Amino acid sequence: MLANVQEVMFSPKGDERGKLIAIESLSEQVPFEVKRVYYIFDTTPGTIRGNHAHKKLKQVLICVSGACTIVCEKPDGSKTEYRLDWPNRGLLIEGLVWHQMKDFSKDAVLIVLASEHYDEGDYIRDYVKYRRFCRELNCVTKE
Ligand code: TYD
Q1: Which of 30, 84, 107, 121 is the most exposed place for a label (fewest CB within 10 A)?
Q2: How many CA atoms lie within 13 A of 41 on its CB side?
Q3: Looking at residue 79, what is its pLDDT?
Q4: Residue 50's closest CA among 72, 79, 34, 31?
């Protein structure tokens, strides 16, 4: 499996006090050991972030406040937009997926759970190189 994108849902535990979502490594929604967490907030209006793919990294993105849109392109060229606008909705991105994050609301806080420590060597930041890399690997995507 070289590239996969999948929406995942978390079940809030709710009572009269409000809601709580608990996330664990190696669960249905997060099928990897979480080694790193980062979050994106206070995003300047109109900003487009990301614009890269990873060779191996697996990530789950959750917009715990506000909303943003994730555009994912798979090695076969198919492109899908996902609007993350609720804390119980996440997006699992595994491997060679070219992705952009855009249309952040003012209050957006996008948390990302990642399977590896930060490694610039795992990034492909040049789109032409990404397409070439996919062709060379003759990628097959999992739907
Ligand atoms: P960058 O890769 O440009 O963010 P994005 O592509 O998601 O918009 O990262 C911004 C800076 O933060 C860059 O200098 C690398 C650094 N960084 C870390 O040090 N650790 C991390 O886990 C991440 C995601 C980024």
Answers
A1: 121
A2: 10
A3: 97
A4: 72
Residue 1: per-residue pLDDT: 56
Q: Which atom of ligand 1 is nearest to the CA of 101?
A: 8
Q: Ligand 1 center to residue 85 CA distance, Å? A: 22
Ligand 1 center–CA 5 separation, angstroms:
21
Beta bridge partners of 43: none
Q: Name the residue type at position 78.
A: S
Q: In a mutational test of the pocket of ligand 1, which residue from 118, 119, 123 has the highest number of ligand atoms less than 8 Å from its CB?
A: 118
Among protein residues, the one whose CA lies closest to atom 7 of ligand 1: 50
The owner of tokens 């992705």 is 99
User: What pLDDT is recorded for position 137?
Assistant: 83
Q: Show the low-confidence residues of the chain (pLDDT under 70).
A: 1, 139-143
Residue 139 is predicted with a pLDDT of 53
